[in-house]
Amino acid sequence: MSINQSEKARAFVALDERPGLFVTANAFDGCSARMLALLGFEALATSS
Q: Quick check: helix, strand or coil at residue 48?
């Protein structure tokens, strides 16, 4: 089952509202995005 945009937004806000730092990694392609996800980043950004 796929999640919709509203659910994605709620999940992102929940990450931001947690105590402590919220670090977003910047992936530059699909391979780096996969690597960052495997390293445990819960949210990824892109510069494109």
A: coil
Location of structure tokens 């780096």: 32
Q: What gap in Å lies between CA 5 and CA 23, rounded to an integer? A: 21
Q: Rounded distance, CA 13 to CA 1, Å?
A: 21
Number of domains within the chain: 1
Q: Which residues of 14-27 are buried (b: 16+ CB within 10 A; e: fewer)?
A: eeeeeeeeeeebeb
Task: Confirm whether pTM is higher than 0.85.
Answer: no
Do the domain assignments include residue 5? no
Query: Over the stretch 2-30, which tens digit does the pLDDT of each residue have?
Result: 889 999 999 999 999 999 988 889 999 99
